[in-house]
Amino acid sequence: MSAVKLDGKATAARIKADLATRVAALKDRGITPGLGTVLVGDDPGSQIYVAGKHRDCAEVGIASIRVDLPATATQKDVEAAIDELNSSPACTGYIVQLPLPKHLDTMALLEQMDPAKDADGLHPVNLGRLVHMVDAPLPCTPHGIVLLLQEYDVPIKGADVVVVGRGITVGRSLGLLLTRRSENATVTLCHTGTQDLAAHVRRADIVVAAAGVPELITRDMVKPGAAVLDVGVSRINGKIAGDVAPDVEEVAGFLTPNPGGVGPMTRALLLSNVVEAAERA
Ligand SMILES: Nc1nc2c(c(=O)[nH]1)N[C@@H](CN(C=O)c1ccc(C(=O)N[C@@H](CCC(=O)O)C(=O)O)cc1)CN2
């Protein structure tokens, strides 16, 4: 058996084409959506992702505001950048690229953002709205995962989903998203304290691997026919190493390539949040 490829790159391209039309309509009304990014330090992965986000903006006609701060930036320096974006009329939505250097208080900085400009859906008010299952900008990777599954008609309602990793950008938020009434999946959130990971993964209809541990999910752990989404982005000698072993392809029903799977969807859904914020405003 060979898994159907969950092509994030192609799906993201379709989403971006639709967004370009919506951006053009906004511009006809005199509104130019603008995405701001705050990047602190020189983590190579974060540099690549932020550069990609601005390339995407140019592609669909969204204006870009880029704030790059050195790794030595203080809490006050980052707060000043956030204040500036909160009050800038050119910035309709923005993100603080994560992870931040360890000396910074991430939660305090996220809380300082204007929730109406939170393009990542990670402000506590917006995550709180997700908990309450009311309308809010959705975290980009989880939203991208749901849309990718829907694009390929992978059944979500009633599915047993195992998410490996409890980080806020993926695992924890994805659990909230998939257990809304509209998705109605049953979600098990596994993490470093999980006793028998293989036993959980083995009974899953959908596996989302977001632990950042190369080849954590092996062929023998996957139920034949399951959908497997690889969010892992470890870098070994500059090359991406996913959380899913390559031979999982032989047993899974659906599998994301990595790169080219969840990453491009994350970026497309970020643009979507920016456009939606501009349309709301
Ligand atoms: N503020 C945020 N920080 C982080 C988020 C996030 O959603 N908001 N998620 C991740 C990283 N991330 C977005 O910022 C991200 C990861 C991967 C990709 C991507 O397009 N990957 C490409 C490969 C690119 C490469 O060569 O490395 C792919 O998968 O095809 C985009 C965004 C953590 N931080």
From TrEMBL:
<keyword id="KW-0378">Hydrolase</keyword>
<protein>
    <recommendedName>
        <fullName>Bifunctional protein FolD</fullName>
        <ecNumber>1.5.1.5</ecNumber>
        <ecNumber>3.5.4.9</ecNumber>
    </recommendedName>
</protein>
<dbReference type="InterPro" id="IPR036291">
    <property type="entry name" value="NAD(P)-bd_dom_sf"/>
</dbReference>
<keyword id="KW-0554">One-carbon metabolism</keyword>
<keyword id="KW-0511">Multifunctional enzyme</keyword>
<feature type="domain" description="Tetrahydrofolate dehydrogenase/cyclohydrolase catalytic">
    <location>
        <begin position="6"/>
        <end position="120"/>
    </location>
</feature>
<dbReference type="InterPro" id="IPR020630">
    <property type="entry name" value="THF_DH/CycHdrlase_cat_dom"/>
</dbReference>
<comment type="subunit">
    <text>Homodimer.</text>
</comment>
<keyword id="KW-0028">Amino-acid biosynthesis</keyword>
<keyword id="KW-0368">Histidine biosynthesis</keyword>
<feature type="binding site">
    <location>
        <position position="233"/>
    </location>
    <ligand>
        <name>NADP(+)</name>
    </ligand>
</feature>
<feature type="binding site">
    <location>
        <begin position="165"/>
        <end position="167"/>
    </location>
    <ligand>
        <name>NADP(+)</name>
    </ligand>
</feature>
<keyword id="KW-0521">NADP</keyword>
<comment type="function">
    <text>Catalyzes the oxidation of 5,10-methylenetetrahydrofolate to 5,10-methenyltetrahydrofolate and then the hydrolysis of 5,10-methenyltetrahydrofolate to 10-formyltetrahydrofolate.</text>
</comment>
<keyword id="KW-0486">Methionine biosynthesis</keyword>
<feature type="domain" description="Tetrahydrofolate dehydrogenase/cyclohydrolase NAD(P)-binding">
    <location>
        <begin position="139"/>
        <end position="280"/>
    </location>
</feature>
<dbReference type="InterPro" id="IPR046346">
    <property type="entry name" value="Aminoacid_DH-like_N_sf"/>
</dbReference>
<dbReference type="InterPro" id="IPR000672">
    <property type="entry name" value="THF_DH/CycHdrlase"/>
</dbReference>
<keyword id="KW-0658">Purine biosynthesis</keyword>
<dbReference type="Pfam" id="PF00763">
    <property type="entry name" value="THF_DHG_CYH"/>
</dbReference>
<keyword id="KW-0560">Oxidoreductase</keyword>
<dbReference type="Pfam" id="PF02882">
    <property type="entry name" value="THF_DHG_CYH_C"/>
</dbReference>
<dbReference type="InterPro" id="IPR020631">
    <property type="entry name" value="THF_DH/CycHdrlase_NAD-bd_dom"/>
</dbReference>
<comment type="pathway">
    <text>One-carbon metabolism; tetrahydrofolate interconversion.</text>
</comment>
<comment type="similarity">
    <text>Belongs to the tetrahydrofolate dehydrogenase/cyclohydrolase family.</text>
</comment>
